Amino acid sequence: MKILLVDGTIFGRKTGVVLETIQQNIAKYNAEYDLEILSFSKLQHQILDGSPLNDDMKYMIQQFEEADAYIFASPVFQASIPGVLKNAFDMIPPKAMRYKPAAIVANGGTTQHHLVVEQQLKPILDYFRTLVTPNYVYTHSAHFNEQNEIIDEDVLSRLDELARVFVHYCEMSRNLKLAAVEA
Length: 183
Fold this sequence. Notes:
Blueprint: E1 2-7, H1 14-29, E2 34-39, H2 55-66, E3 69-75, H3 83-91, E4 101-108, H4 115-127, E5 131-132, E6 137-140, H5 153-182
């Protein structure tokens, strides 16, 4: 099973650190998964404006289409998700993520911005009909030290729990696929 861990920003390091922690946790629960981090900071982004897509955007779309499940990591800027993440969602075909497991982590400068997950990310993933885990993890600046290492034990525990639940969703989605084939 291919798991795509999406670092949905071109700025900063905190979302990448959170994804790396989740990657380790998922591997602990199921070492057979193919885990890949897709860092938006390494792609040449283009605005979806009707012009032909560049190679990086074609690659990004292909990664979304080929993945069996997703972990989305987003910073919160100005009480919203980054434009590159929204632009990526606009490029993905509507059925590409259908009935595939997804989990969400977000990071912001204040504790109040956790609602961005509820108000923006969950509705977008619902549109794609992903199987969104009921738990998400929101971090803020105080959860990291100056080297961007997670120092909050509760956050580390919640990231582990998110990985555990996500792995169960992945296994459940396999059974859904099997049931569809048998029917």
